Amino acid sequence: MEKLFKLKEHGTDVKTEVIAGATTFLSMVYILAVNPGMLAAAGMDSAGVFTATAVSAAIASLFMAFFANYPVALASGMGLNAYFAFTVCGDLAAKGVTDPWKIALAAVLAEGIVFVLLSLCNFREKLVNDVPANLKYAITAGIGLFITLIGLKGAGIVIGDASTLVNLGSFSSPQVVLALVGLIIVAVLYHFNIKGYILIGILVTWGLGMIAEATGWYVVDPEAGVYSLFPSFSGASFIPAKPALFEFDFAWIADNIIQFIVIVFSFLYVDLFDTVGTLIGVASKGNLLDEDGNLPRAKGALMADACGTIVGACIGTSTVTSYVESSAGVANGGRTGLTAVTAAVLFIVALFFSPIFLAIPSFATAPALVWVGLLMIGAVRNMHFDGDIADVVGGFLALIMMPFTYSIANGIMFGILAWVILKVLTGKVKDIPVVMWIAAILFGLRVATLIMQQTA
């Protein structure tokens, strides 16, 4: 282990890495429940998607461990799967296309191949390393707010409201109460420096939920999306279902090449900048950036992400990407690829014990996400809110637009565009790295496509 992952050099040990990997896994295991249902809406077999989601997550996380030695786990990305199912497949189905998911999978495959090429020519690595310092810290803090919102929403603490956009959830809800109790538990464990405090918090919150169900406070109502917290093995098969292997429709692509390119670009855009933002945020939280604020071994990390996407497409799932929930493991001491290996092993285990893992509710992982958000927002202390106006405004927009638009990529888009535009308008064109020009042009094209879509 020492030779493979250089544990001593990173100030960690096997036990810490394994606990961190388990914490990361439990923070992102919800994808095994969400993704099959999401892609089933596109016409795919949910059991096969479950297998593909778990296997691709394991393989991609192993890529990250051995290509870059980073404590980052990967899986089918949230947001990207919604785009896959409801935008791409929904539009194609409305036009009478049979099995539109085969076209969407081909687009994911093409996206992965393009990412490999971009990684080989160092574009993605330079993008990670040439982002200005204020933007990097803003991205870290913004991701903290974003995953806090994910956790609060998952527990029902924050709910949608037609009048005020968001509102406070009901305190008569056991999910809300248990999530808040879980957060207090995590805070107390942290205060007493208990190893594995985030993982313990998740498991204790889940346990309290089962007690609430047994006493009748937590009422199971599948029609309302409230499921039993006790693992159910009745009629469950422990043999993984066959995924959709190499199910691509290239015939349609040949006749609709322009439309296909637009689909690929959309996948490319979201995955590219979500990945960059996630890697910067997680690496910053784990003190993995070098003295210049750059990400060492960025090429390996980005290549792992790209190869994971290709594998995912070949076995039948939407875009595989680096998970911001890896921050939970990093906050718990994860510093090397052994954390990612642990998460990968648990994804394989989940194939055979899916009833157990799928029983962990979102309100039990909410305290972990909120706590990590608290830790990551601390990066705002390193931001400068005076001096160069491009750094100030660019960083501020990157920080606020992630939670307010519910997208890491949108936050980066606003931050980079504002930074480049203000550099130009203040006569500092020479200070703009080439890679930032390229990123700004890509985002400009993205804005143009959004305008065309909204006015069509």
From TrEMBL:
Please state the protein's primary subcellular location.
membrane
Report the Pfam families cross-referenced here.
Xan_ur_permease (PF00860)
Q: How does it sit in the membrane?
A: Multi-pass membrane protein
Q: Where are the transmembrane segments?
A: 20-41, 47-68, 80-97, 103-123, 135-159, 171-190, 197-220, 226-245, 257-282, 302-324, 336-357, 363-380, 392-422, 434-452
Q: Which GO terms describe its molecular function?
A: purine nucleobase transmembrane transporter activity
Which compartments is it annotated to reside in? Cell membrane
Q: Which UniProt keywords apply?
A: Cell membrane, Membrane, Transmembrane, Transmembrane helix, Transport
Q: Cellular component per GO?
A: plasma membrane
Q: Does the keyword Transmembrane helix apply?
A: yes
Task: Return the similarity comment.
Answer: Belongs to the nucleobase:cation symporter-2 (NCS2) (TC 2.A.40) family. Azg-like subfamily.
Q: What is this protein called?
A: NCS2 family permease
**Protein species of origin:** Emergencia timonensis
